[in-house]
């Protein structure tokens, strides 16, 4: 497989990681572009990317770390991106990186340590510290849009174990509309394909037309959202999922979901 093919295969997931790390699609994509530009300009770095996914994320991490304090403010961003800018100034980025690499991106502690150039033991410690920081956020109400009953029940149990309230579950777009008519959720977990052939994307669009709430898509078809053709979700979990991955995504989404500046 050529270097270009390797990068193309892994690029959608690097972009997902960058968006989750920064809380902004525009900022995340800017760092990804900077990583690719750096690789093109550095033959040694370019050659290292032939090693696959870990070297690609390691190259991104070097760009992110060196430019972290110089990220420009997002102009005209939505409430979530504005909140992300405030949050990123106050939360230790190493903690967040360790958590996302080992949960959302499913790297081992050893692989994450290679990416961040620290030990696996430190990765595990940083990830736990990140969870502790994020879990300080207040509880919220959650709408689960999922047409598979067993998965819906699993998500319900997980959400309540995190101290949140499930305000409703929906297997179709219409059911989601009915739940939201009664109570606007503070967070939405949504599948793409629903029971009656309706779309979870449309169901989420209905909700976002009423209120700006964080959304986590949980799907077996991530490639349908990671196309670059439309605004992509910041939080995207692939089925079959690990509960720790969903927990990390929930924590991140709620952490960035408040539009209230810190301080």
TrEMBL record:
Which keywords label this protein?
Answer: Phosphoprotein
Which SUPFAM superfamilies does this entry report, sorted A to Z? CheY-like, Sigma3 and sigma4 domains of RNA polymerase sigma factors
Which CDD domains does this entry report, sorted A to Z?
REC_PhyR
Top-level taxon in the UniProt lineage? Bacteria
Q: Does the keyword Phosphoprotein apply?
A: yes
Write down which residues bear the modification named 4-aspartylphosphate.
Answer: 191
- Per the database record, which ranges form the Response regulatory domain? 141-254
Q: Which NCBIfam families match?
A: PRK09191.1
Full protein name: Response regulator
The protein's organism comes out as Qipengyuania qiaonensis
């Amino acid at each position: 497989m050529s270097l270009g093919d390797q990068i193309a295969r892994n690029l959608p997931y690097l972009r997902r990681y960058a968006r989750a790390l920064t809380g902004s699609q525009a900022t995340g994509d800017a760092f990804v572009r900077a990583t690719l530009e750096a690789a093109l300009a550095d033959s040694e770095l370019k050659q290292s990317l032939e090693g696959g996914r870990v070297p690609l994320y390691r190259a991104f991490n070097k760009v992110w770390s060196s430019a972290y304090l110089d990220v420009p403010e997002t102009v005209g961003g939505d409430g979530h991106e504005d909140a992300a800018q405030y949050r990123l100034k106050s939360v230790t980025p190493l903690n967040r990186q360790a958590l996302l690499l080992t949960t959302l991106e499913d790297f081992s502690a050893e692989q994450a340590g290679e990416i961040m150039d620290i030990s696996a033991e430190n990765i595990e410690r940083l990830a736990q510290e990140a969870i502790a920081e994020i879990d300080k956020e207040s509880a919220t109400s959650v709408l689960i849009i999922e047409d598979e009953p067993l998965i819906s029940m699993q998500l319900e149990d997980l959400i309540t174990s995190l101290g949140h309230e499930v305000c409703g579950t929906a297997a179709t777009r219409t059911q989601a509309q009915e739940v939201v008519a009664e109570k606007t959720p503070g967070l939405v977990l949504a599948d793409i394909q629903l029971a009656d052939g309706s779309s979870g994307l449309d169901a989420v669009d209905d909700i976002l037309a009423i209120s700006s709430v964080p959304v986590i898509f949980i799907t077996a078809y991530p490639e349908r959202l990671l196309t670059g053709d439309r605004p992509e979700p910041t939080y995207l979990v692939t089925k079959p999922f690990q509960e720790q991955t969903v927990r990390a995504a929930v924590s991140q989404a709620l952490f960035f979901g408040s539009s209230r500046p810190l301080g």
